[in-house]
Amino acid sequence: MNVPPPDEELTTTSASPVDGSIAPDTSTPDASTLDAAALDAAALDAAALDAAALDAAALDAADPLRDFRARFVLDPALIYLDGNSLGALPRATAARLAEVVEHEWGEGLIRSWNTHDWFNAPRRVGAKIARLIGAGAHEVLVADSVSVNLYKLIVAALQARPGRHTVLSEPGNFPTDLYMIESALRTMDAGHRLRLVPRGELAAAIDDDTALVLLTHVHYKTADVFDMAAVTAQAQARGALVLWDLSHSVGALPVDLNGANADLAVGCGYKFLNGGPGAPAFLFVAERHQGGLQSPLGGWMGHARPFDFVDGYEAAPGIARFGCGTPSILAIAALESGVDLHLSADMEAVARKSRALAELFIDLVEARCAQFGIALVGPPRGAPRGSHVSFRHPRAYEIVQALIARNVIGDFRAPDVMRFGLTPLYLRFADIQRAVEELHAVMTTDEWREPRFSERRAVT
Description:
Blueprint: H1 56-62, E1 72-73, E2 79-80, E3 89-90, H2 91-105, H3 112-115, H4 121-133, E4 140-142, H5 146-159, E5 166-169, H6 175-186, E6 193-196, H7 202-205, E7 210-216, H8 228-237, E8 241-245, E9 264-267, E10 282-285, H9 287-290, H10 329-343, H11 347-369, E11 375-377, E12 388-392, H12 396-405, E13 408-409, E14 411-413, E15 417-421, H13 429-444
Parallel strand pairs: 2-13, 5-6, 5-7, 7-8, 8-9
Antiparallel strand pairs: 1-3, 4-10, 9-10, 11-12, 12-15, 14-15
């Protein structure tokens, strides 16, 4: 399918990279150093980046987050740069799941909905996630998937803005965000539309017909970061609601939804929160909106009195009304384990290390691999960014496959992007140095040209 040109109504969509400039996100901390003693800016200066001389071991020894690596299950021979698609397994998760399966389910059976508080698990874990995203404990619910939560909040927002017909987003937003807007619009009257506008023109595009602005805080390909507070204020000044997708933000950098006066948000649990493949997602609804918004999916877990078993639907008060079906207790238990791990870390230190890892990666690739036509995609060194680094090359897919064969796992994003996730809790500076040397070797030897690396798999 073709991407519609900017500022056109959407009929069918696919994602494309975003390369435009963005307003600086003043909430993102300066991460040129990890601490005053250890990561002197000169150590990461481009002029000092002789890969053979860089003492990555010294940076790792001084890393205040270094002990977190031992809390994950990681093959010591593997460099895992895909934490933004599937985070590594926390060591505590397997034991926690065994406890839930063998004791709470095996022994407690149906009683565990009460005795082990399974019933309140979506709100309990939501309250923990709230601490990572600057929200109130009563404003976040673990539920369903990002796609389903998007649908619920898009429809709720449109119904709360009668007389307005436009959902505003940007070309190249994550596909499911655009697809769910399409799906939601099919349930509304024929006058509703999706308008795609480049991010540099979004503020001017918000008008009196805009019901909802839906954006991804950190772009999934480029790592560009929106200024959440500024965009939210611009939309609200015109009477629109804003829905933020935090899938590449939560657990990777500090987020302050209430500080930005955010309206709505969603996020996933399997990336930086390390909740496991297919982990439940979460949604945020600001307290001021909870009484006025209605979920379009009135399942029994969103009912005010689910165990009265009445025929008519009555929405629960507060955030609970955005529940739907019976929650997956095993999946929530795994997610909670990952969330607890993150709550024990200093998110400001995580953000500082993320920035330092990214700048080291960028500088080393420029020094070692620029001659191969590998070009940075997204924010330049020193600019606000999410916790991944992307590079463009015409044979990006083959190069990523060759790196995977060398135990350096990144991912490919069509049509030509190599993406490397930077998870500060377990990634080391030495890993970055080795990954770039492996990339240099793949390019120098033309190893990526081997036919086996061009075979496309279902998941890239």
